[in-house]
Amino acid sequence: MSRTRPRATRGFGARLLLTQALLLVAGAVTAYLVASLVGPGLFHQHLLEAGTDPSSSETYHLEMAFRDALLVAMGVALLVSVGAALAVSVWFTRRVQRSTRRVVDAAADVAAGRYDVRVPASGLGVELDRMSSTINELGARLEQVEGTRRRMLSDLGHELRTPLATVEAHLEALEDGVIVPDATTFAVLRSSTHRLRRLADDLGAVSRAQEGRLELHPVRVDLGGLVDDVVATETAAFETRGVTLRTDPAAAAVIIDADPERLGQVLTNLLRNALRHTSAGGTVTVRTAQDGTHAVLHVVDDGEGITPEHLPHVFERFYRADSSRTTADGGGSGIGLTISRAIAEAHGGTLTARSQGAGTGATFALRLPRA
Ligand SMILES: Nc1ncnc2c1ncn2[C@@H]1O[C@H](COP(=O)(O)OP(=O)(O)OP(=O)(O)O)[C@@H](O)[C@H]1O
Ligand SMILES: [Mg+2]
Question: Quick check: 371 pLDDT over 60?
Answer without folding.
Answer: yes
